[in-house]
Amino acid sequence: AGATLGAAILLGVTPDDRKGNLGSTMPGTGVNDAQAVGVEIMLGFILVFVVFATTDAKRTDLGGSKPLAIGLTVSACHLFAVS
């Protein structure tokens, strides 16, 4: 009930010219769909690779923080994707 009320309030206070794409993720100006999919695949691979590499129980050479490595990877991928 709270989410529905919040959505109704958001709909009521949002200007009409902004309601069409409200909350949707769209490729940036000058980026076509194929490029957007390519970037998503590449960054998804990098993130999954880092998660698997840092959480592998057979690796004994890791000395740092696993959550920090994953978090920095998420941050770097996000900064790369939105620029």
TrEMBL record:
It is a multi-pass membrane protein. SUPFAM superfamilies: Aquaporin-like. It is found in: Membrane. One of its GO terms (cellular component) is plasma membrane. InterPro entries: Aquaporin-like (IPR023271), Aquaporin_transptr (IPR034294), MIP (IPR000425). Keywords: Membrane, Transmembrane, Transmembrane helix. Coiled coil: none annotated. Belongs to the MIP/aquaporin (TC 1.A.8) family. This is Aquaporin.
